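sry for the spam today, last one i promise. struct tokens for design, 428 residues
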């Protein structure tokens, strides 16, 4: 039986998961590959922190990347550190030494994925990154393998477990945003600083990766228009429920004849849609191809063993390529990127406004919307006090630019105290 030595860059949640998974399922993996996988090195920052960890033989800990890059026995390097810049330097050096790389680093792939893929091909090395999107859900490889006979038209995903957990608790338990966030922190679903999650940046990196693969286009995180969930309140949740919708933070990539659009934002989605029923910290990715139709993948989007499952699957795929002599021979095709103007992207909207409880308010708001050729689908007024009322409006599909301009005009009306929220309605 052949032996393949690998090295881990990082030994946090995912790195330890890889070690545990190989210990648990090693015989099954060896049976399939006729190859034994041995972890030889683990790169860490602080030796004292890990020296008491009970690691299987013959793993060696090091703080020096040179120990790994100069070891000719190491054929595959697994990068699970999380930091983009140092990880990029390490991976580039691996390719130059003809070592294949598996990465779970979404920040790195979203920003530098295509240059690194090109470099790996130049040096006949493999570069795999299934775990960079949606943890244990198999979605990266299907985008360039199982679904590659299709023109991918649309990718919509719940790609962040923290925000989905928060919104699920707000919907199912009636919790406020602040209380739901605090519970997410207590249970380990949210970091002490949750900005990357709740502001939508984490999901934006993941949709950039999937759009790059699915649309064969060189897009990056910077091409994604991002809006988080910080402004979602119980009022919005309640109105959505009454109208037959659920609010989710969706990452959306669309490919039309006039270009590609990439967005992350809170969305109203019909209760009957499969994505509406994805609860808790789970993730799901909905893909529409011109031949296959609609496909959805669902599962745990984070966690030690689920993410390690994707990492080790990539390692196995690299070894399979070793065994049949096709390492580094996967060709990726990229087209010139044509991004749609954000202001031209159309969708129906839910609008919530706080206004003076006085005659003529509805007429004034309706007049502004009519001036911008925006049609009202439904309208509801709720009196909060004798002085203040809340108006909820559902408008027909309108361009992002026109909606923003009309809301600025509405907010300038003397009878309008504030436009409390504007949330897109996704009709799929």
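last one done:
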């Amino acid at each position: 039986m052949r032996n393949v030595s690998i090295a881990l860059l990082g030994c946090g949640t995912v790195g330890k998961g890889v070690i545990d998974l190989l210990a648990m399922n090693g015989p099954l993996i060896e049976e399939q590959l006729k190859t034994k996988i041995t972890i030889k090195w683990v790169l860490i920052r602080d030796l004292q922190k890990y020296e008491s960890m009970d690691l299987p033989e013959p793993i060696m800990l090091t703080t020096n990347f040179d120990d790994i890059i100069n070891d000719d026995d190491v054929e595959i390097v697994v990068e699970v550190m999380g930091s983009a810049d140092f990880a990029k330097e390490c991976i580039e050096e691996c390719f130059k030494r003809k070592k294949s790389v598996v990465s779970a680093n979404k920040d790195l792939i979203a920003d530098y994925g295509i240059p690194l893929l090109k470099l790996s091909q130049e040096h006949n090395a493999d570069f795999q990154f299934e775990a960079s999107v949606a943890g244990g859900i198999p979605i990266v490889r299907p985008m360039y393998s199982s679904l590659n006979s299709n023109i991918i038209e649309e990718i919509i995903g719940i790609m962040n477990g923290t925000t989905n957990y928060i919104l699920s608790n707000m919907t199912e338990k009636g919790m406020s945003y602040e209380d739901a966030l605090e519970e997410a922190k207590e249970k380990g679903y949210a970091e002490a600083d949750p900005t990357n999650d709740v502001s939508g940046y984490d999901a934006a990196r993941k949709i950039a990766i999937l759009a790059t693969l699915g649309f064969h286009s060189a897009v990056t995180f910077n091409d994604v228009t991002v809006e988080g969930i910080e402004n979602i309140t119980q009022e919005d949740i309640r109105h959505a429920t009454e109208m037959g919708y659920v609010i989710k933070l969706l990452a959306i990539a669309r490919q039309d004849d006039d270009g590609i659009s990439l967005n992350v934002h809170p969305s109203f989605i019909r209760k009957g849609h499969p994505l509406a029923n994805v609860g808790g910290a789970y993730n799901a990715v909905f893909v529409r191809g011109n031949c296959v139709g609609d496909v959805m993948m669902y599962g745990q989007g984070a966690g030690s063993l689920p993410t390690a499952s994707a990492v080790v699957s990539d390692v196995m795929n690299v070894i399979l390529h070793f065994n049949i002599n096709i390492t580094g021979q996967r060709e990726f095709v990229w087209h010139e990127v044509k991004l749609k103007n954000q202001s031209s992207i159309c969708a129906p909207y839910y609008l919530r406004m706080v206004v003076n409880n006085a005659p003529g308010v509805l007429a004034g708001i309706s007049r502004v919307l009519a001036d911008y050729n925006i049609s009202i689908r439904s309208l509801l007024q709720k009196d909060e006090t004798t002085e203040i009322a809340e108006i909820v409006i559902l408008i027909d599909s309108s361009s992002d630019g026109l909606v923003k301009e009309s809301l600025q005009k509405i907010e300038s009306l003397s009878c309008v105290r504030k436009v409390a929220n504007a949330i897109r309605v996704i009709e799929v």
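The chain has three domains: 2-132+304-323, 140-300, 342-426. ok im logging off now
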